[in-house]
Write a structure and sequence with these properties.
This protein is an alpha/beta fold. It is built from ten helices and 15 strands.
Length: 332
């Protein structure tokens, strides 16, 4: 299955670092898949906060680039040397390479996973990156068990929503921070036992009250700059701070001696380092799909936008207007 020549497809292109307005809807050239590659026609594309970091230049990537690191779609061509994959297969990927905000893209065959046919594509595009991240956070960085008490920041967000659901199912007591009443209600529905509206209450004080001064076993902190110090204060003796994002900015440097008062642990994981081998990738994706099928994960696709309007999705995400996950749908 070879296509005769290159063709043009529509994609979002970033030519300069900046606000959402730097994301332009352009024609890009799509070449044939080479050795070990496949071509995928995207049906749903996940929006993740990491896309904002790259667009703003906090994370670096050579310009110009097509943003995005997660999509589901249908295989439209198979390059030489690829076995076990054919045109028409439904596949998904999350992580590397960059470039999913496009109608159609070339991917190394080894980064994709087959998608169970029963699952809606918008749901798949919501759980590949976010769901595998939750698998890493709850099962690998720190193993949450029955009886643990945990603190989740941005508990109504894309990752946060799934994190609350999964942690609750593992038997943890879940405390979560959110910015509004609406988000608190959503987090509660997702199994967050104690939503804290941080715009109204001091989260460190509330965690102290809720845990009768004991603190939590683990904090999952994706907010970064605004929460990092407080997160350390919320931890129990020998607690774990899992700092996995910086939606509010990079946390300030701090002395290692700050960990000494309670013999704390600190880790700064990234999904790709836990899905470095294909076995790890398939295990992570498999765990997510199994939890979807069993009903532990109930994905909230709260926002869909046409792919051409990706800039609007970013503006809303950065303004804290969104909850649950955001998906882009190719325009045709
Ligand atoms: P979210 O849906 O969680 O969106 C971000 C949320 O963070 C907002 O809705 C908001 O919730 C909260 N927030 C707090 N302060 C700010 C701020 N200053 N600006 C914007 N938002 C703020 O996004 P995702 O689910 O896509 O990602 C969540 C986090 O997880 C990100 O930090 C991301 O980088 C990280 N991540 C890390 C991975 C890794 O491998 N390390 C993998 C995947 C995600 P509220 O209104 O309640 O304050």
């Amino acid at each position: 299955s070879k296509s005769s020549s290159s063709e043009m497809v529509k994609a979002i292109v970033v030519r300069e670092i900046g606000g959402p307005e730097v994301m332009k809807w352009e024609d890009v050239e799509l070449i044939e898949p080479k050795e070990g590659e496949i071509r995928v026609k995207n049906t749903a594309i996940g929006v993740n906060f990491i896309d904002v970091y790259f667009r703003k230049g906090g994370y670096k990537f050579p310009l110009p680039f097509v943003p995005g690191r997660e999509a589901v779609g249908v295989v439209s061509a198979v390059g030489p040397g690829v076995t076990g994959r054919k045109v028409g297969d439904v596949v998904a990927y999350a992580g590397d390479p960059m470039g999913s905000y496009t109608e159609e893209q070339i991917l190394p065959d080894k980064v994709v996973v087959p998608v169970p046919p029963s699952i809606d594509h918008k749901v798949v595009a919501s759980v590949m990156l976010k769901g595998m991240t939750v698998h890493v956070l709850l099962r690998r960085c720190f193993k949450v068990e029955q009886g643990h008490t945990i603190l989740v920041h941005a508990a109504a967000g894309g990752v946060g929503s799934l994190l609350c659901q999964w942690a609750n199912a593992l038997g943890a007591t879940v405390i979560g921070t959110v910015s509004s009443e609406e988000k608190a209600a959503q987090a509660a529905e997702d199994g967050c036992h104690h939503p804290i509206i941080y715009t109204k209450e001091d989260f460190v004080e509330r965690v102290n009250e809720i845990t009768s001064g004991k603190g939590v076993n683990v904090v999952y902190d994706s907010v970064g700059k605004d929460t990092f110090k407080g997160s350390l204060q919320c931890l129990a003796l020998r607690g774990y701070l899992v700092s996995f994002g910086q939606s509010s900015g990079t946390p300030d440097p701090f002395p290692i001696s700050d960990l000494a008062s309670k013999a704390l642990f600190l880790t700064r994981p990234s999904l790709m380092h836990y899905t470095a081998t294909q076995d790890e990738l398939l295990a992570a994706a498999g765990d997510v799909f199994a939890n979807l099928e069993s009903g532990v994960l109930r994905v909230r696709v709260n926002h869909t936008y046409p792919l051409s309007e990706a800039a609007r999705a970013h503006a809303d995400l950065e303004a804290r207007k969104t909850s649950g996950s955001i998906v882009l749908i190719p325009d045709n």
